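QA checklist item 7 of 12: single-chain prediction sanity check.
[x] sequence parsed
[x] length recorded as 266
[x] structure emitted
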Amino acid sequence: MGAGGFRVTWDRHAEPVPMDYRVVIPCLNEEGQVASAIKSALYRRQTALTTVSAVVVDGGSTDGTVKAAQRAGAQVLSSKRGRGPQMNCGAVGVRDDQLLVFLHADSQLPVRYDASISKAFERYSARMAKQGQWGCFSTIKLDKPGLRSALLRASVSLRTRLLHLPYGDQAIFVRGQAFREIGGYKEVPLMEDVDLVRRLRSRFGAPVIVPGAVVTSSRRWDRLGFVRTTLLNQVIMAAWAMGTPPETLASWYYGARQLSEKRHGK
């Protein structure tokens, strides 16, 4: 095992790994984004080895999110607001052998993501495959190409490989049995993804890191600016590591967003 998670070894004779995917997409007022997320998940619903379903969990949208999700082919559920409870709701009833993929509503999975995940699993030895209960894509990129996207892509890739610490925008995936075993997401207002990753890493070891970039909306980076957004993220991560309650962190994070929106007249 290297610094970058499970080290992939090629085996030309490895059998393809059958996969049954459930892509869970938590939503709140994402009428303009959710269809793209769903379409990236359902680009092909079934092959000889792959079955995919998309579950959108709405947290009380007041726009046309629900109708847009239904038109795009997703099953739509309702839950109390918050990514943690919404993603737990979307995972209810998952089978042990299903693979849960958690996708943000303003993001799109890489092209042929299912084949990439399957190949990553089939390349491991039998011993490693038993440990490979969860993983993520190696990085993200913004939907607006440019220097910001390139810098973000490189920094996320480095963090993931060296620290084994992916964030939720990297489409974290986990087997159903493993998700239940650790108790799912904690219902906290922020840092639910980092908390989940740390528990998965503690219980099952390093993630399966799948080559590829999840495309994410640049809107957050546009609102605060690239430098401010990066600094805010690092401050929140450091404060969380020192034991600052998620409620306090959420007030910092969402307070900064609201202040920026007021300045920009949004």
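[x] summary fact logged: Strands lie at 19-27, 50-58, 75-78, 99-102, 107-108, 134-142, 173-175, 208-216.
[ ] second reviewer sign-off
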